[in-house]
Amino acid sequence: MDKLIITAALTGAETSKEANPNLPVSPAEIIESAWRCWQAGASIVHLHARKPDGTSTQDPQVFGEIISGIRERCPGCIVQVSTGGAVGMTPQERLQPVMLKPDMATLSTGSVNFGNDLFVNTMEDIRTFAKTMVEQGVKPEVEVFDSGMVQNALTLVREGILDLPQHFDFVLGVPGAMPGTPEALMFLRNLLPEGCTWTVAGIGRAELPLGAMAIILGGHVRVGFEDNIYYKKGQLSQGNEQLVQRMVRLAAELGRPVATPAEAREILNIGGE
Ligand code: KMH
Ligand code: ZN
After folding, report:
1. What is the pLDDT of residue 273?
2. Which residues have their alpha-adjacent CB atom under 5 A from ion ligand 2?
3. 22, burial (CB in 10 Å: exposed 0-12, middle 13-18, buried 19+)
4. CATH number at residue 179
5. What is the reported pTM?
6. Within a domain: residue 21?
7. What is the pLDDT of residues 141-188, one digit of tens each?
8. Ligand 1 pocket member 108 (CB < 6 A)
9. Ligand 1 pocket, mutate which of 58, 82, 89 (most atoms under 8 A from CB)
10. Which of 101, 169, 233, 270 is most buried by its number of CB atoms within 10 A?
11. Which helix H or strand E contains 168, and what residues bound it?
């Protein structure tokens, strides 16, 4: 079994400081949170950016500031930008941070209800996103909110746009998408072709149990305020690093070593440092 890759999803697009005052929002706060998570054992940071008023942005200048700060303070850490952005953004807007050549970028391979909103990804847009990532040398993380998204990713493989093995992230527990249950995780994992890697992002209270399952099953784990702002019921997390530290402890208890960023690069076949 590979060593465990922990991703810290630091900010997201939907969470607010009103919900958890410890949410990192400004570039300086995001860089500091990335450093703490990297120190705690995260090898990937998944990034969203915000405007000074707290609303979501895909502005490459803001992403550029965050990425260069993280590269300086967390050498080797794998930088993954969101191309999901926030619901309602145009595809062109969402794709912008890929041009900064981060190590990775998310690639949502389908459309889904997202609470009261719709998260729209047409096949044409998915192809454009995937081709752009390949052209820029950016490794995709295929974001799966619903099972058809695995099928769409495999369509891209058949079309020769993506190759195998790919790396997947199962985001489970978004209202309107697949639930944060063990059955949903097993179902999705069993759809993947041999050799593909996967991580799980359990939303809210699903974060901890699905993380534990992934540790046991040989998958990887994503934690952080994008997915969950609580440490436990009724208790807000003091920082993203607290959620990373818990996964590190759990992995130690379950006998699964945690990957360094260099080891994570090897597992995911990402060059450079
Ligand atoms: N904010 C969601 C609508 C991603 O980062 O690529 C999409 C999202 C996925 O967060
Ligand atoms: Zn995201």
Report:
1. 62
2. 82
3. middle
4. 3.20.20.70
5. 0.98
6. yes
7. 999 999 999 999 999 999 999 999 999 999 999 999 999 999 999 999
8. yes
9. 82
10. 169
11. strand 167-172
